[in-house]
Amino acid sequence: MRPTAVALGKHFGNLGKMYGEHRFALAPNEQKAYKGFLDQAFVKTFKTYVWDQWYYYIPQTIGAYLLYDWAKKTNHEANRKNPADYANDQ
């Protein structure tokens, strides 16, 4: 078994050196947590669910609207009074 750096008695911060890697960080109070949230969230949602997958819901929506419109018109015609029944009334 190969001895690790921890087993050799080094502290956790001194386990190894990395060259060529730079890390930058901002304090939590300096970060803008919601920067670009509204516009980016809207654009990503639109692109994912509307632009890329329109064929899943547009045909069903059009079909459901046409069925609804036909049912409304048929119901209106079926429930109205027949004007010929009242032609001789005064």
From TrEMBL:
Q: Please name the InterPro entries in this protein's record.
A: Cyt_bc1_su8 (IPR004205), Cyt_bc1_su8_sf (IPR036642)
GO cellular component annotations of the record: mitochondrial inner membrane; respiratory chain complex III
Q: Which UniProt keywords apply?
A: Electron transport, Membrane, Mitochondrion, Mitochondrion inner membrane, Respiratory chain, Transmembrane, Transmembrane helix, Transport
- Gene Ontology biological-process entries: mitochondrial electron transport, ubiquinol to cytochrome c
**What's the short name of a Pfam family annotated to this entry?**
UcrQ
Compartment list:
Mitochondrion inner membrane
Q: What does this protein do?
A: Component of the ubiquinol-cytochrome c oxidoreductase, a multisubunit transmembrane complex that is part of the mitochondrial electron transport chain which drives oxidative phosphorylation. The complex plays an important role in the uptake of multiple carbon sources present in different host niches.
What do we know about how this protein assembles, alone or with others? Component of the ubiquinol-cytochrome c oxidoreductase (cytochrome b-c1 complex, complex III, CIII), a multisubunit enzyme composed of 11 subunits. The complex is composed of 3 respiratory subunits cytochrome b, cytochrome c1 and Rieske protein UQCRFS1, 2 core protein subunits UQCRC1/QCR1 and UQCRC2/QCR2, and 6 low-molecular weight protein subunits UQCRH/QCR6, UQCRB/QCR7, UQCRQ/QCR8, UQCR10/QCR9, UQCR11/QCR10 and subunit 9, the cleavage product of Rieske protein UQCRFS1.
Q: Which family does it belong to?
A: Belongs to the UQCRQ/QCR8 family.
Q: What is this protein called?
A: Cytochrome b-c1 complex subunit 8
Species this protein is from: Caenorhabditis nigoni
